[in-house]
């Protein structure tokens, strides 16, 4: 069989993966805190036709190797952690991170499992604990939950993550300080769905600090970080991928026509 046919198949498979990634980006264009994906490729092993040779003593020069590539393969699917724009909501429990870092949330189990997110749309549950849309507890700098008493008259969240509230007697109280996690390699985090990430062997152990410390960003209350997906870029990449897919199908069609001509030699 022709090598070009298998090269075309590998190209089609890779372009489909890229289109899948683009489709997921576009689907999450309005997902709070979403970080877009990017697909890269690398060439597959090349078949050696002839090796390189050094210049000979008789005066002939050296020759370069002759190789035929066998297609392409998936290189990586990257998560691009660039800053998304902050959208004003004027809601006290909507929090955006201006800079690096992730919110820490926990399922509250024993032992608890911690997750990390850039989505800052938080809520109060029946007990006054701050939770995300899936019910995971927002953690303070000591790893505990942040509780605002249901009898509190009002509350506020500062840039440094301090949560203050006014109790039923009109006195100002502190409910805790929101913690921020940072990683040596945030691109090594694994997406777990529901706008959350989990630690992997390549992300590094999370450092825990308060907003604005250790190179992390500050909190902007009343805002939400939007997706960093650029629709114009995604549609452009979609067109490029579509044409590349079509070109690879043409390779298979042409290879098939050549094989058909070979079969017809018997007639």
Automatic annotation (TrEMBL):
Cite the Flagellar hook protein FlgE/F/G-like D1 domain residue spans from the record: 97-165
Repressor as UniProt keyword: no
Residue ranges of the Flagellar basal body rod protein N-terminal domain? 5-35
Q: Which InterPro entries match?
A: Flag_bb_rod_N, Flagellar_FlgE/F/G, Flg_bb/hook_C_dom, FlgE/F/G-like, LlgE_F_G-like_D1
Name the UniProt key words of this record, in alphabetical order: Bacterial flagellum, Cell projection, Cilium, Flagellum
Pfam families named among the record's database cross-references: Flg_bb_rod, Flg_bbr_C, LlgE_F_G_D1
| The Flagellar basal-body/hook protein C-terminal domain, residue ranges | 221-265
Cellular component annotations (GO), alphabetically ordered? bacterial-type flagellum basal body; bacterial-type flagellum hook; cytosol
Q: Which SUPFAM superfamilies match?
A: Flagellar hook protein flgE (SSF117143)
Provide the GO biological process annotations.
bacterial-type flagellum-dependent swarming motility
Q: Subcellular localization, per the record?
A: Bacterial flagellum basal body
| Keyword check for Ribosomal protein | no
Q: Which family does it belong to?
A: Belongs to the flagella basal body rod proteins family.
Q: What does this protein do?
A: A flexible structure which links the flagellar filament to the drive apparatus in the basal body.
Name of protein: Flagellar hook protein FlgE
The gene from which this protein is expressed is: flgG
